[in-house]
From TrEMBL:
<keyword id="KW-0813">Transport</keyword>
<feature type="domain" description="ABC transmembrane type-1">
    <location>
        <begin position="85"/>
        <end position="301"/>
    </location>
</feature>
<keyword id="KW-1003">Cell membrane</keyword>
<dbReference type="InterPro" id="IPR050809">
    <property type="entry name" value="UgpAE/MalFG_permease"/>
</dbReference>
<keyword id="KW-1133">Transmembrane helix</keyword>
<comment type="similarity">
    <text>Belongs to the binding-protein-dependent transport system permease family.</text>
</comment>
<feature type="transmembrane region" description="Helical">
    <location>
        <begin position="172"/>
        <end position="195"/>
    </location>
</feature>
<dbReference type="InterPro" id="IPR035906">
    <property type="entry name" value="MetI-like_sf"/>
</dbReference>
<keyword id="KW-0472">Membrane</keyword>
<feature type="transmembrane region" description="Helical">
    <location>
        <begin position="126"/>
        <end position="145"/>
    </location>
</feature>
<feature type="transmembrane region" description="Helical">
    <location>
        <begin position="21"/>
        <end position="47"/>
    </location>
</feature>
<dbReference type="Pfam" id="PF00528">
    <property type="entry name" value="BPD_transp_1"/>
</dbReference>
<feature type="transmembrane region" description="Helical">
    <location>
        <begin position="89"/>
        <end position="114"/>
    </location>
</feature>
<feature type="transmembrane region" description="Helical">
    <location>
        <begin position="271"/>
        <end position="299"/>
    </location>
</feature>
<dbReference type="GO" id="GO:0005886">
    <property type="term" value="C:plasma membrane"/>
</dbReference>
<dbReference type="GO" id="GO:0055085">
    <property type="term" value="P:transmembrane transport"/>
</dbReference>
<protein>
    <submittedName>
        <fullName>ABC transporter, permease protein</fullName>
    </submittedName>
</protein>
Length: 315
């Protein structure tokens, strides 16, 4: 009898805790249902030749002709298919690696600062670019790279060089795009890793220092290993977007220069330039393809990591 009472009490206690957590997560659940799951019905557009016959989205969708996978064909039949895949995957692979290495390095350096007030100033300065629109950033960059009045060309001419037509030279732009992406995103990543470093048990460092470890040995043997789980989670999540490109970075920052299309042609810019809003079905097919590939990569990478280290996996 007592055993049953204890079991019932335990179940009731578990229900009470679960009910509170469920209640707290209810607004987020409703938000995701309304704005993430419910709109997934629109995936059907990717398999239809969507046309407007009259008012009402649902009626137009039903009346539009079913074309199957025809909308996906343009992505693979185009002569630029290899260029699109190369640029998208190549740039994103670099962004993922640098988006881990640089923020971790900065977070470690900030955590080692003795002057915490100075550390907050540095942190704010690094975080500020995250809030800037690519449109704003592109015009700041244009002020530096303008062929006639740009700051860089002004310095080049001052020291006896020849002005560079930056927006017509392909060689410089892979490095410019990589730098701009890292510059804009490093502050956000640094804050996440710095929060994780702050949560590490201080007694681990105290014990290491008592045993004669230096500060850098503390970083090597305590800080970096403690960040492993967070790094793996962020890496898996970033793989989900490896087939997506930052449209603002590749379209707005180079000012949509036709000379740079070999560098800036990625999935998102190609779809916009090739079809724009002319064929909604093809646009939806491209987005659906990107989502499916991201889904596959997330689950496959999580499966591999789960085989190697079950506790480090995302799910």
């Amino acid at each position: 009898m007592q055993k049953k009472l204890k079991e019932a009490k335990g179940k009731r206690h578990f229900f009470d805790e679960s009910f509170e957590l469920a209640l707290l997560s209810l607004p987020t659940t409703i938000w995701y249902f309304l704005f993430s799951f419910l709109p997934m019905f629109g995936v059907i557009i990717a398999f239809k030749n969507y046309r407007i016959f009259g008012p009402g989205f649902i009626g137009n969708l039903i009346k539009s002709k079913w074309v199957g996978f025809d909308n996906f064909a343009f992505l693979f039949k185009t002569k630029n298919a290899w260029l699109i895949v190369r640029n998208t995957l190549g740039f994103n692979a670099i962004f993922i690696v640098l988006g881990i290495v640089i923020p971790i390095s900065l977070a470690v350096l900030l955590s080692l600062l003795y002057n915490q007030r100075l550390g907050k100033i540095y942190q704010t300065m690094m975080f500020l670019p995250h809030f800037l629109s690519w449109v704003v950033v592109s015009y700041f960059l244009y002020a530096f790279l303008n062929a006639q009045n740009g700051l860089f060309n002004h310095l080049i001419v001052k020291y006896g060089g020849t002005p560079i037509q930056w927006y017509a030279e392909k060689a410089y732009w892979p490095w410019i795009l990589i730098f701009m992406s890292v510059w804009k995103g490093m502050g956000y990543g640094t804050v996440m890793y710095l929060a994780a470093i702050t949560g590490i048990d201080k007694s681990l460092y105290e014990a290491a220092y008592l045993d004669g470890a230096s500060r850098w040995q503390g970083v090597k043997y305590i800080t970096i290993p403690s960040l492993k789980s967070l790094v793996i989670i962020l890496f898996i999540m970033s793989l989900g977007g490896i087939f997506r490109a930052d449209f603002g970075l590749f379209y707005q920052v180079p000012m949509n220069s036709a000379f740079l299309y070999d560098i800036t042609t990625v999935f998102d810019t190609y779809v916009y330039r090739a079809i724009g809003t002319v064929n909604i079905g093809m646009s939806a097919a491209a987005a659906f393809f990107q989502s499916i590939m991201g889904f596959i990569l997330i689950f496959s990478s999580n499966f591999l990591i789960r085989k190697l280290d079950r506790n480090a996996a995302l799910f």
